[in-house]
DNA sequence: TTCATAGTTATCGTATACGATTTCGTACTT
DNA sequence: AAGTACGAAATCGTATACGATAACTATGAA
């Protein structure tokens, strides 16, 4: 587990089924996205079409298309006759993204809850345990990845792929902000791990959808609150 | 009021501010989107790049880019070496879209509620009154447009543009299904108008966010339920 | 020294061209 | 008559080329 770049799963798995060589625009999309999510291209980074095209070894047209797609996902900003830059670390954007995530993650969790079996719960617990260990060794990068894994386990049988897609977009958006000021408010991580366990117990106990949704939403919202409290 | 095509408002208004002539890919995007939303291109319609390019009077590259953008919004399906078609009327997709809409509309309404003033409430009531009249004259197309207007008034000061964007995407998605089997379950429209009034009263009365969110969510969900009950 | 302006460079935007892939029709075989 | 294989047409995918726009720089005047 612990894959970092989370993609529009539906699209990508469909593409994988066809034994087709990936189109170059597809490749360019994946490549640039990966660089943004990994942090090679940090926010504000100037994405020059010709340069990227040369790097990847093909022409500008597919690259252009890829950039446009990333723009639609909010990962890059594209200005006419000026060019593309990796989307910024505007605190307001962070707030919007986190708030939206709290809503869609809450919904995704509530919808998935009735479909989660005990095996998945056990796996989620194992991931959460790993997260605890990360805290001891202070490994924030892995912690974040595991956090996504934890929720991914819960979302495995999410009955609505659209909502799942929105979750993934949010995650990617946040990933592009890596190593910005928006991470690791002291103490929040510990609390987060505790909330995970509480969430699992709610699911195990067959709590009603509304309770689970509120808990999951609050889980994300608390991280946002923790950040906000540090700045004010 | 009563504009039909709802766009990523942030992007479009920004583009409007620059006195720039719209780029051709932008024009192509708007044009094709409009045709889909208006119903000129119905689901399943084959979008041949060269043909569209000729119609619009420019080359295929910008058209291609536009189609890709529409793909990202879910309005068209693009298959490699085969081409683009207007996204289909799969009942499952309808369910996904409506369910997602119920969630994001619910959230958008709850977030907006505290910011809605009495003038806006009055305007919303006026729109709702028009909707009643539409029911008498049986004008479903206008009814749908007014329905969007009603909610748009409520969302005018929505503090989170991301969520608003998701709402708009959902609306566009549904619009592309116009004149499909997914509309106008008998009696549902009347109920919808009543629910609008109830929603306004909740907002006026300063109901708490949770109550408003549930009401708004249920309002959309009920339409979905009405559809589902007709098929089973 | 600072500001305005003109010219240069970098970069984007789009058209055209051609190769690759798919689809569809037709002829041939069983 | 039905199915298969082959070939032609349609369509997509990408490269290259060139025009348009904006950013930058240098030069001159106040």
The level of helicity of chain A is 55-70%
Name given to the CATH homologous superfamily of the largest domain in chain A = GntR ligand-binding domain-like
What is the overall silhouette of chain A? globular
Tell me the CATH topology of the largest domain in chain A.
Answer: Four Helix Bundle (Hemerythrin (Met), subunit A)
SS field, number of helical segments of chain A: 10
- How many E strands of chain A? 3
Q: In terms of per-residue confidence, which ranges of chain A show pLDDT below 50 for 5 or more consecutive residues? A: 8-19
| Terminal Cα span of chain A | 37 Å
What does the oligomeric state look like here? homodimer
Calculate the mean pLDDT score of chain A and round it: 87
CATH architecture of the largest domain in chain A: Up-down Bundle
Largest sheet of chain A: 3 strands, antiparallel
Radius of gyration of chain A: 19 Å
Broad structural category of chain A? mainly alpha
Q: What is the spatial order of strands in the main beta sheet of chain A?
A: 1-3-2
Question: What's this model, at a glance?
Answer:
The structure is a homodimer of 232-residue chains. Chain A is mostly helical and 232 residues long. Chain A has ten helices and three strands, in the order ααβααββαααααα.
Could you describe the 3D structure shown?
2 copies of one chain form a homodimer. Chain A has 232 residues and is mainly α. The first copy, chain A, is globular, with a radius of gyration of 19 Å. Chain A has a 3-stranded antiparallel beta sheet with strand order 1-3-2. The two termini of chain A are 37 Å apart. In chain A, helix 2 (24-38) crosses helix 4 (60-72) and helix 5 (91-112) runs antiparallel to helix 8. Chain A is 68% helix and 4% strand. Chain A folds into 2 domains: 9-86, Orthogonal Bundle (Arc Repressor Mutant, subunit A); 91-231, Four Helix Bundle (Hemerythrin (Met), subunit A). The A-B interface holds A 15, 18, 20, 23, 25, 61, 64-65, 68-69, 72-73, 80, 96-97, 99-100, 103-104, 107, 160-163, 166 and B 15, 18, 20, 23, 25, 61, 64-65, 68-69, 72-73, 80, 96-97, 99-100, 103-104, 107, 160-163, 166. Chain B binds a DNA duplex (30 and 30 nucleotides) through helix 4.
